[in-house]
Design a protein that fits this description.
Length: 500
């Protein structure tokens, strides 16, 4: 079934579909079309995209908190081995983001959402099998943990898909909400997994199970939800014919300087968010833990607090997109990096006050725990800054490609319309490339904390925060130099002052 262009002055017809929910006519930049048809369809696709992406993030980070329970359930692993289990899903997830992005124009956003949700059954069922068998070799655990990276790839396909649905003026908020809904999966898996498996209650409001820890319960829950997400995408989402393009067209973005600059900045924002989220449960356990789960107020138990960082970072992401829509993405991104420098140094300051091996002596453990509120407060500020930076950088990406398309064409011409459509396709491809590179930070950060060449885990942690601080300084300098500094003689190719 096909449609013809709507004559001027006539009402916009509903978006037509061919078989399997393909929308042929999609013009989000047309104000009348957007108000009568586009907004409703885009919102419906956004809601179910958020749900599927949320589950993807939850499965991606399922090892971040479950690894802290493995020793208690009979597995004899060192802190370095546990950090590797936490890091592997992030490495695989970052590598999958590139093909996941290209899959949306190839197969359709709805179709690939169904496929990516169904693939979550692999890591969840594998997790359920392995955690019930203490004799499982470590390499098998590494392999199963790596498959959890399938959930990390969902972010790229989801963001690329939603980018096609919204007009430029609303992309920042829409992409921010989509990403925040996904990022929230990190926080909720860290909050509810201890409750589901019986390892902890929620601040004493829900009591921990007295029957022991059953890690496989979480896997069964998320396997069931993956089936729900697959069915929801089938019934409620759409494919866009206007989003079709070949991988060769999409790969053109890897030749662009702006793609790699933004990827570098995204390592600083999202790489930090996902890396810190993955490592936080183990960081708390290794530095502030007491031997037995204690009631709130008498000790620091990681399961009570591990989810807070990801929750704060997820909540501030749409705020970063909203700010970027109004102030400009580059300004907000620069402010986010400035805050990350300040609060990362503050986290480092709290760690300097600690004595290594806090469980060796009750007095030492008590003294270390007195610094925990400062550590947690400063770390949450770091998470808030990463969330704002995530939202603002993803506002910058479509703005950069739109600006370049507008500068190369004349307003009101067919060439301008074609250039803007091509720019939207390239921006969606760039989102995948940038997301893939940025997510590598989720692998590097846990590995930096494990640092097998450093015997003392505390020393490795302190050294890692020093390196992270220096990196954020460089990211802020790049943001200012490329997108905000106004040269004495503004050249045509410069993006400074373009409101990116």
């Amino acid at each position: 079934m096909t449609t013809t262009a709507t004559p001027p002055g006539e009402a916009t017809a509903p978006a037509a579909r061919r078989s399997r929910r393909w929308i042929e006519d999609w013009r989000p930049e047309d104000a009348e079309f957007w108000e009568t048809t586009g907004r409703r369809v885009a919102r419906r696709n956004l809601i179910w995209s958020i749900f599927a992406e949320h589950l993807g993030f939850s499965v991606w980070l399922i090892w971040s908190v479950s690894s802290a329970f493995l020793v208690a359930t009979g597995f004899d692993y060192t802190p370095q081995q546990l950090f590797v289990l936490v890091a592997l899903p992030n490495l695989v997830g970052s590598l999958l983001r590139l093909p996941y992005t290209f899959a949306v124009p190839k197969f359709g956003g709805r179709n690939f959402t169904m496929a990516s949700a169904a693939l979550l059954l692999i890591p969840t069922l594998g997790f359920a099998y392995a955690v019930q068998r203490p004799e499982t070799p470590y390499w098998v655990f590494c392999l199963i943990a790596a498959t959890a990276g399938l959930g990390g790839g969902n972010f790229a396909s989801s963001m690329a898909n939603i980018n096609f649905f919204y007009p430029s003026a609303k992309k920042g908020a829409a992409l921010g909400l989509n990403a925040a809904g996904g990022n929230l999966g990190v926080s909720l898996i860290q909050l509810f997994l201890p409750v589901i498996v019986g390892g902890a209650g929620i601040f004493g409001l829900v009591k921990a199970s007295e029957g022991g820890i059953d890690l496989q319960r979480a896997a069964w829950v998320y396997a069931g939800l993956a089936i729900v997400a697959t069915l929801a995408a089938y019934f409620f989402m759409d494919n866009l014919s206007t989003a079709k393009s070949s991988p060769r067209e999409q790969l053109q973005v890897v030749r662009k300087r702006q793609t790699w600059i933004m990827a570098f900045l995204y390592i600083g924002t999202f790489g930090s968010f996902i890396g810190y989220s993955a490592a936080m449960p183990l960081l708390i356990k290794l530095n502030f833990w007491v031997p037995e789960p204690a009631p709130l107020g008498t000790g620091i138990y990681f399961a009570y607090f591990a989810f807070l960082g990801a929750l704060v970072g997820s909540a501030t992401r749409p705020f970063g997109g909203w700010l970027a829509d109004r102030l400009g993405g580059a300004k907000v991104t620069l402010g986010a990096f400035g805050a990350m420098v300040v609060f990362t140094l503050a986290v480092l300051w709290t760690l300097v006050q600690l004595t290594p091996n806090p469980t060796a002596d009750p007095a030492i453990a008590s003294a270390n725990q007195s610094w925990f509120p400062w550590f947690l407060g400063f770390f949450l500020c770091v998470f808030a800054a990463t969330g704002i930076g995530n939202g603002s950088t993803y506002k910058m990406i479509p703005a950069i490609w739109r600006t370049e398309a507008e500068r190369a064409t004349t307003p009101g011409t067919p060439e301008r319309t074609a250039a803007l459509l091509a720019g939207t396709k390239q921006a969606s491809a760039a989102i995948g490339v940038i997301g893939a590179v940025g997510a590598i930070g989720g692998f590097l950060i846990p590995m930096a904390f494990s640092a097998p060449w450093v015997a003392d885990p505390m020393s490795a942690t302190k050294g890692a925060f020093v390196v992270f601080t220096a990196f954020y300084v460089v990211c802020g300098a790049v943001t200012w130099a490329v997108y905000l500094r106004r040269p004495a003689e503004v050249r045509a190719h410069s993006l400074a002052g373009a409101g990116i």
